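Re-run with default settings, no changes from the original entry. Doing this only to confirm the output is reproducible before filing.
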Amino acid sequence: MGELSTISKLAVILTLSFAPVTSLDGSSDIGMVVDCWYVEEGGGKKGSFPTSINQDQAVLLLRHVSYDKGEELKLPSDLALPSDLKPGMFFDVTDYSRIITHPGFKKRRNPSEKPRCEVNSYVPEEANVKWAMHLTQDERTPAYQSGTWFSSHIQTSDHSFSVASVHRVTSGPSGAEDTSPHKTSVVLNVFSRTPSVRTKLKRDVLLDCGFAMDRQTGFAVEWRYQYRGSGHLVYAYNGAQDRVDMAEEGTEMFFYELHSRGNASLLIRDVDMRHEGSYICTIYMPNLHAQQSIDLEISETPRLTVSPELLHLTPGREQTVLCEICCYYPLDVSVKWTRKRSGNSSTEHISESWLSGHRVNPDGTYNLTSSITIKPTAEDHHNVYTCYVDHVSVKAGLRESVTLKVAGASGPSIEDAIGMFICAFFLYGTLRLLYWLFAEKVYPLVSGSMEETKEKMN
């Protein structure tokens, strides 16, 4: 019975694995439709840059397909395309790894939630970096001499997933007026589930990058760092020869995961300010490559301190209250003060406040001081002054408060009465102790000494 149970379980798993895939947008087998832009350079070039950029509306049909290749997929009869779509701007995409059919690319009613999509023409060419050469067993890199190629880049609207793909056209329009689609097969996918990463200082951070190829061949991985126009190589690995050409100190890759699952993620240990910037993960296969850019941001939450901690003043006495904002990053921070009057639930903004300049700490974080000046009257007793700080590292903001107590404003409070009682009790005990010492110790000594003196005189 145990063997039968196991076989039954395997049968269920296989049945589910090969069952028809239901589309995320409600249709039975077409996959999903993504609105896109076809972008190409126009005119000539001025230096390294084109003089103009042309873009046209495009549509991608991302197929849900089985892993069995060779199946002819027909266009669904109910597929609606924009009426003004130009010929050649419709792409029927087949990806046997299914990576490009990510759930985040599903069409939504809100236009602002559409995925970002761009398609470009692509020309296969041999890589010119040493770690991406000789990726085949015979150390020759065959060129793709024929065919039409495209590349695409799609990112979900919430920036949670991004995939760059290289497509080979299997069939396409026969002429300029032919409205039939470019049928493409994805040869290479490079994707990331963390296009943007935010971390604190001195943490280990993993930059996610994965890839899938439609054939077994050699590959290479390259990680580059870019920040404000400058950059450098961080990691370079030739998978065909199992050779690390470059590995910056404090970085690590996982080679078993890399070869078995296409996991090209990069681990950076003990992050500090020099690590902030963009990291470009490039996957090379013979004559083809695709890449993902991953932004690494440092974010440190401010720490607030309001001083003085106890705000006890006499009427008319002027006092400066400080809000020390410490150890935050990045630089942008906003500060405001509010006052809540005693017996009133509403708060009012204090417009007259002062800010110091930003001060840089040795670790690259910043400090700032904000201050207000108060000159209380008796009516200000129990007013609450609050320092509010908004920073990108916190959603709801931060605040720190201090309560003003004005001497003589409302007579002694319960706390004052308890304090006076304790002081009186302590004073009474001290006097009793002094009396006892005098009566039991000092007085007998003085009295005995006087009697001895009298006896000697007699």
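The chain is about 15% helix and 40% strand. Residues 417-446 form one domain.
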